[in-house]
Write a structure and sequence with these properties.
Elements (H helix, E strand, L loop, with lengths): L4 H36 L3 H20 L5 H16 L3
Helix pairs in contact: 1-2, 2-3
């Protein structure tokens, strides 16, 4: 355990940020699962709506620094490609 006040504060900040990042990543994963479920059900309209929501969540995560911009672009690209290739 840390003895220095600043080190104790850093531990608290790290825990707080880790929980925040975990919550944001969980939202993204849930949105991606909804897109995958719509694709599996072969429901094009639901897939497009879910893709839009997933794209928004991924963009928010990128803005908050949880994902690198290239990682976000890759995720969005793969989802969009899957939705476009449904037919």
């Amino acid at each position: 355990m840390a003895n220095i006040k600043s080190a104790k504060k850093r531990i608290d900040v790290t825990i707080r940020n880790t929980e925040r990042n975990k919550a944001i990543k969980s939202k993204v994963k849930t949105a991606v699962k909804k897109v995958d479920a719509a694709i599996a059900a072969n429901d094009a309209d639901a897939a497009k709506v879910a893709l839009n929501n997933a794209t928004i969540e991924i963009s928010k995560a990128t803005t908050k620094g949880v994902y690198h911009k290239n990682t976000a672009a890759r995720k969005v690209s793969r989802l969009a490609k899957a939705v476009n290739n449904m037919n």
